[in-house]
């Protein structure tokens, strides 16, 4: 049998070269297709009254994932972003969705302490590493759960210096109003302890469920105790309503608290009544990484403005990526161990963790006051 090769050996060589190129292209395409996809989860309040915090954190998380993918990793990262709606049950459902997906190597989440306390056991049982980017209840890292770490300092770190300042500069009689969540209870408990230690007295203490909208009867009762200020131990929506209704009732005393209501939305809700409100927050210290994040965030044209939680979620995502690069994509216990061994210089500063997974980032309190419709440094 004879095979006809067409126009001679030159055509055969060209055909061979073309076949070789095609094979190489096919091999490259197969390599790209075969690149492993690693999922990293994010959970936060993307709807409801606390959505601004969650949306700005989500954006920081997404920016970190996008930048890591562009940096040329040996695997492809996929962000899995879920809403907890600031609700523990919704948060647990989101955590179960993440932990039931074998491609999810690790996750970060939660602004609300109550939600974090409900989900950390889910991540622990599933052996999925989890970094808390916003929730500040001390209970979250009281026990050494090897899968759980946290990049943000606890409410103890802000309530102690705020209480000392209040006793020295505001007055010796303060009334406490809070919600009944774990966050509200822990804030009230810690502020009260430190305020009394500084020589002050708590003249009234009232707590109501999250979602309460009418505080007038409670505030009228508190007003009768003649406090020098009201300490509010909750978050944005209720804080705005409390402040608004204080002014309606003629209460000219200041309202103070920690960073749970340090948000532009608080000013929108309280309106002109927000003037003079004081929030004690962790002071942000400038560094090259924070400056770069600020520029990159602006360049990314996110719809939401950055908040303090943007950098927290951004650093959390980057810490997870570095841990996966170090430990590999398969062994989640090794990834968790690599997270705990982190020495990371990021937008928050230098992050490292203690034996319980709590950040060792030092805290310096910064007092912010609402002045002319905006939060300003005192």
Descriptive notes:
The chain is an alpha/beta fold. It folds into 2 domains: 37-153 and 285-351, Rossmann fold, CATH 3.40.50.2300; 156-283 and 365-377, Response regulator (Rossmann fold). It is built from 12 helices and 14 strands. The chain has helices spanning 9-34, 51-70, 88-99, 113-126, 155-169, 182-197, 216-223, 236-248, 264-270, 288-300, 308-327, 332-340, and strands at 37-44, 76-83, 104-109, 130-132, 148-150, 173-179, 201-208, 229-232, 255-258, 278-282, 344-346, 349-351, 365-371, 374-377. The longest helix has 26 residues, at 9-34.
Major beta-sheet overview: 7 strands, mixed
Identify the overall geometry: elongated
Spell the H/E element sequence. Answer: HEHEHEHEEHEHEHEHEHEHHHEEEE
Level of helix content?
40-55%
Determine the strand fraction and express it as a percent band: 15-25%
Strand order, sheet with most strands:
7-6-8-9-10-13-14
* Average pLDDT for all residues: 91
| Overall CATH class of the largest domain | Alpha Beta
Write down the CATH topology of the largest domain.
Rossmann fold
* Discrete helix count: 12
Domain module count: 2
Uncertain runs: 1-16, 18-33
What structural category do the secondary elements indicate?
alpha/beta
Q: Give the radius of gyration.
A: 26 Å
Task: Determine the CATH superfamily of the largest domain.
Answer: Response regulator
Report the end-to-end length measured between terminal Cα atoms: 96 Å
CATH architecture of the largest domain: 3-Layer(aba) Sandwich
Number of strands: 14
């Amino acid at each position: 049998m004879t095979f006809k090769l067409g126009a001679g050996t030159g055509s055969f060589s060209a055909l061979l070269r073309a076949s070789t190129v095609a094979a190489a292209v096919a091999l490259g395409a197969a390599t790209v297709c075969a690149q492993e996809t690693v999922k990293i989860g994010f959970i936060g309040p993307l709807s409801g009254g606390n959505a601004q915090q969650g949306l700005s954190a989500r954006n920081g998380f997404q920016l970190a994932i996008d930048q890591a993918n562009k940096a040329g990793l040996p695997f492809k990262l996929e962000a899995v972003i879920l809403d907890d709606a600031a609700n523990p049950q919704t948060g647990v459902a989101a955590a179960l969705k993440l932990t039931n997906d074998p491609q999810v190597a690790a996750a970060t989440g939660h602004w609300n302490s109550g939600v974090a306390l409900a989900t950390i056991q889910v991540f622990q049982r599933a052996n999925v590493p989890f970094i808390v980017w916003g929730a500040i209840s001390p209970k979250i890292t009281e026990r050494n759960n090897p899968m759980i770490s946290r990049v943000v300092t606890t409410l103890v770190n802000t309530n102690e210096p705020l209480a000392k300042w209040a006793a020295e500069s505001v007055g010796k009689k303060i009334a406490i109003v809070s919600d009944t969540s774990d966050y509200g209870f822990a804030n009230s408990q810690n502020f009260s302890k430190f305020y009394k230690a500084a020589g002050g007295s708590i003249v009234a203490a009232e707590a109501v469920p999250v979602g309460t909208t009418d505080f007038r009867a409670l505030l009228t009762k508190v007003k009768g105790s003649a406090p020098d200020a009201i300490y509010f131990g909750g978050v944005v929506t209720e804080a705005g309503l409390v402040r608004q209704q204080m002014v309606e009732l003629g209460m000219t005393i200041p309202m103070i608290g920690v960073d749970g209501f340090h948000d532009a939305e608080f000013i929108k809700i309280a309106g002109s009544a927000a003037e003079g409100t004081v929030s004690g927050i962790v002071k942000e210290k400038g560094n090259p990484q924070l400056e770069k994040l600020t520029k990159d965030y602006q360049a990314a044209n996110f719809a939401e403005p950055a908040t303090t939680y943007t950098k927290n979620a951004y650093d959390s995502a980057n810490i997870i990526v570095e841990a996966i690069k170090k430990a590999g994509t398969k062994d989640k216990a090794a990834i968790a161990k690599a997270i705990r061994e982190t020495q990371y210089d990021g937008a928050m500063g230098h992050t490292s963790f203690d034996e319980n997974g709590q950040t060792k980032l030092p805290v310096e309190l910064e007092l912010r006051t609402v002045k002319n419709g905006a939060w300003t440094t005192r």
